[in-house]
Amino acid sequence: MQTTTTCPYCGVGCGVKAEIADDCVVAVKGNEEHPANFGRLCVKGSSLNEVLGAEGRLLNPVVDDEIVEWDSALETVAEGFKRTIMEHGPDSVAFYLSGQLLTEDYYIANKLMKGFVGTANVDTNSRLCMSSAVAGYKRAFGADAVPCCYEDLELAELIIITGSNAAWNHPILFQRMKAAKAKNPNLKIVVVDPRRTATCDIADLHIQLKAETDSSLFTGLLSYLARHDHLDYEYIANFTEGFADARANAEFTFPDVDSVAKACDLPIMQLRTFFEWYAKTEKVVTFYSQGVNQSASGTDNSNAIINCHLATGRLGKEGAGPFSITGQPNAMGGREVGGLANQLAAHMELNSPEAVDCVGRFWGSDNVATSAGYKAVDLFEAIEAGKVKAIWIMGTNPAVSLPNADQVVRSLKQCPLVVVSDCMAHTDTVALANVCLPATGWSEKNGTVTNSERRISRQRSLLPPSGEAKPDWWIISEVAKRMGYEQAFNYDHPYEIFKEHAELSGFENNGSRAFDISQLQDLDLKSYDALKPQQWPVTDAAPYGTARLFADGKFFTPSGKAQFITVDPHDPLQQPCDAMPFVMNTGRIRDQWHTMTHTGRTSRLFQHREEPFVELNREDAEKLNIKESELVKLKNIQAEYIGRARIVDTDQRRGEIFVPMHWNKQFSAKARMGALVQPAVDPFSGQPEGKHAVVNVEPYNPAWEGWLITRKPLDDALPVEYWSRVPKESASLYYLADSIKIEDMRSWCQQQFGEIDIWLEDANQKSFRAAGLNGEQLEWAFFRMPYGQIPSTLWLEQLFAETEVNMDQRRFLLSVTGCELEDPGEIICSCYQVGSHAIEDAIQQGCNSLDALGNKLKCGTNCGSCIPELNGMLGK
Ligand code: SF4
Q: E-strand spans in 740-776?
């Protein structure tokens, strides 16, 4: 049987066709009819069926480490929240939600807290993702409304990709831009990024600006457009306000291109080219993402971008507009229902008495919150300060992802009631919960999500829930009923919630709010099940949705005009100093997602990058005496991080480093980048400055290094300073290192891994090898040896699939000479498992183009995520 659904990873929101047989998703492929992806999927989407199954799932409700019945767990949560509210008031409780929740889940969580408990202490991990883009749109347009659609990427003649490694983070949109460029030779692409990333593969121009100078660049561009008479005076006069001030300030701050070049540390000729292209091209899309948002100037960055579009009237037209791309699958759905602590519901504001009255009448509640609650960073500080005493975290992992993540851990450890709903049993945050509630995961959930172009799509349930797992909307509703709100939370199916959400969007709206899907309020179960992807607003006037907003020049501000915002660029809050001279940038890698709770379940997605790493410039590395693949320690006033050095040339600016955001305590000893990020936030959006932490960088010099391969992952963290776990098909591989010498390695191994059956020690070579068997089966093998000498582990991995290890294999095992399987090198093409060695060989044999490599090895011929790396290997 085949069912259509939506990928749960990124904000592109690709349509998926899932093949189901015997209660298993046996295959997935892109849905050719879905307008987000037209049949394509990236490597993460195409491995969705590999991350399912009961292993690692949270299967039962757990209270104080004991498995309990649902009724008892729900009662514990309801009683705990009721008691806390009674004793300390409604603002002593909070929810921390997630852009992975479905809109129906989000709606119910928001309704309970803001509508009935009477607190706006409901924030979400979307605060870390795009809250600055939201604040920017609201300041400019009076509404959190993305004006563009994906088709604009194909219709544009200039695309500026800023603060986004789209090739890795939004791969299908990258593929669409790449295809558009191939089709239209006039399309120019400019990438603005302090790093040279895989996205630069399609760039005509890479603006490698100094970190955190985005608002200088775009304010400088506004100055250039004004000084060179490239303005749309009619548009400015008819549809905007505030231009004179914004223009005067831009021209005063950046009187010439030279001043912008100095502020951004860029070659002046490069800037001139960029500014000229912008000035002379009508159809311009600025495509921006976390690199713009995760900044203490994130909102100003957004408005600096929007100002340029308003000044040239490039908005609400085909192929033009400021296009914020969300990181998470349903960040937009969360924004629709009011999932942020400073929103009410359906694009209504907490500080508007009319809106509070309207929502109160709609929900039948006289206890609607009237002021903003704690935003993410403030929320966990309020918990540590004892102001918030009960928190419910749903589907997210703040102990890893939030800035000052060690503070988050401290705050949760001392919070009297921590409830966590999650589908996974082992996350850094679940480990801190008093109550764990098993939630359904992708393939079991049923509801809707909204992608970056405002397109609402169905995420359909494909399989029955694992164990005792329940949908989030059901869990919240059951708690709400037990808190005394039976009537308002009496739902049997998510379609009832969706209908209510749609009805509220149109309730007393009359064109005053951008978000309006009232045309969908009469759906019945059948039509909800069959709902086709469509872009809001969906109204009487636009019953099939709306591709672009603001074509009529009418905005949602009090005057109906768009607002120019005067932007004063300023330095980041965290400044390098002698003790912490490096700027740390953070971000995603190609094959992982968030804190690996899902993508960490398949070995395939580790083949591209196995371990946490630190990418740094070659000259910096030489100065610090750091060599490729050696371990590096980062340190600042908050925490330490250990990862493997990846040395690059000009891809990384001197004085700046990059670390991935994914690793956590389930996968590595000290690789939570959030622990290093200081809690500096944007003053308007509260979004943390996640891409600009300051750190010291030094080589980590271990007294010994080794590796372990074991059938079962270890229950507890190893007592070594560095370990990193890499899931394999039938085993787990660990890389280990420590600065403390171990005198008796044999005893240490026995203590850590169990009985030793065979071992070999060479005191001169300082090597030690040991293995443990269970009967005739290999259970674990440990090798003390420097990282650089580790051979391919493929042969050993295969031993774990065998029922018996024979005498020859035991001999080989200790000498590591049985590795006759060819080492593929780093896996470049995850779809077809093509390693760097095969690609290098093929290039040597004369394959000098992507087509030639694709014909020979198939690499790059499926999702295309590896094409930039293939091009790099081809020297293109
Ligand atoms: Fe999923 Fe990849 Fe599409 Fe994002 S681009 S929605 S991760 S398939």
A: 758-762, 767-774
737, 731, 739: which is closest to 714 by C-alpha? Answer: 731
CA 41–ligand 1 middle distance (angstroms): 6
> Could you tell me the distance, in angstroms and rounded to a whole number, from the CA of residue 331 to the centre of ligand 1?
14
Ligand 1 atom closest to the CA of 329, numbered from 1: 6
**Structure tokens, 658:** 């990059």
Query: CA–CA separation, 660 vs 589, rounded Å?
Result: 6
Alpha-carbon gap, residue 322 to 616, rounded angstroms: 31
Q: How far apart are CA 840 and CA 509, in angstroms?
A: 61
Angle subtended by helix axes 214-227 and 257-264, to nearest 10: 170
Whole-number Å distance, alpha carbon 679 to ligand 1 midpoint, is: 30
The per-residue pLDDT for 604 is 78
**What single letter denotes the amino acid at residue 286?**
T
Q: What is the DSSP letter of 443?
A: T
SS3 565: coil
Digit-coded pLDDT (tens) for 125-155: 999 889 999 999 999 999 999 999 999 999 9
How is 499-564 classified by DSSP, letter by letter?
A: HHHHHHHHTT-TTSSS---GGGTT--HHHHHTPPPEESP--SSSTT--S-S-TTS--SSTTSSEE-
Question: What pLDDT was estimated at residue 634?
Answer: 97
What residues does ligand 1 touch, defined as CB less than 6 Å away? 7, 9-10, 12-14, 37, 41-42, 44-45, 170-172
Which residues neighbour 544 within 8 Å (Cβ) at sequence distance 6 or greater? 534, 538
**How many CA atoms within 13 Å lie on the side-chain side of 642?**
21
d(CA 399, CA 92): 20
Residues 668-713 have pLDDT tens digits of: 889 998 889 999 999 999 999 999 999 999 999 999 999 999 998 8
Residues 6+ away with beta carbon under 8 Å from 333: 101, 102, 103, 106, 339, 448, 449, 450, 456
Residue 430 pLDDT exceeds 90: yes
> How many angstroms does the Cα of residue 99 sit away from the middle of ligand 1?
14
Q: Which residues contact 597 (CB under 8 A, 6 or more apart)?
A: 397, 422, 423, 424, 427
pTM recorded for the entire structure: 0.91
Asked if residues 864 and 177 have their Cβ atoms less than 8 Å apart, the reply is no
R_g of the chain, CA atoms, integer Å = 27
Q: Measured between alpha carbons, how far is 75 from 62 in angstroms, rounded to an integer?
A: 12
Could you count the other beta carbons within 10 Å of the beta carbon of residue 544?
Answer: 10
Residue 31 CA, ligand 1 centroid: distance in Å: 12
Number of neighbouring beta carbons within 10 Å of residue 785: 18
Separation between Cα atoms, residue 723 and residue 736, nearest integer Å: 4
Q: How confident is the model at residue 818 (pLDDT cuts 50, 70, 90)?
A: very low
Q: What is the mean pLDDT of the chain?
A: 93
Q: In 3D, which of 752, 762, 757, 770 has the Cα closest to residue 813?
A: 770
Q: How far apart are CA 679 and CA 802, in angstroms?
A: 50
The end-to-end CA distance of the chain, in Å, is 43
43 CA closest ligand 1 atom index = 2
Residue 101: closest CA among 393, 344, 363, 518: 393
**Which has the closest alpha carbon to 411: 437, 436, 391?**
391
The tens digit of pLDDT for each residue in 223-241 reads 999 999 999 999 999 999 9
Q: What amino acid is encoded at 775 in this protein?
A: G
Residue of the CA atom closest to atom 2 of ligand 1: 42
Q: Is residue 56 over pLDDT 50?
A: yes
In this structure, are strands 767-774 and 656-660 parallel, antiparallel, or unpaired? unpaired
**CB neighbourhood size of 303 (10 A):** 29
**More reliable by pLDDT, 861 or 369:** 369
pLDDT in tens, 405-415: 999 999 999 99
Query: Nearest Cα to 222, choosing from 263, 253, 189, 268?
Result: 253
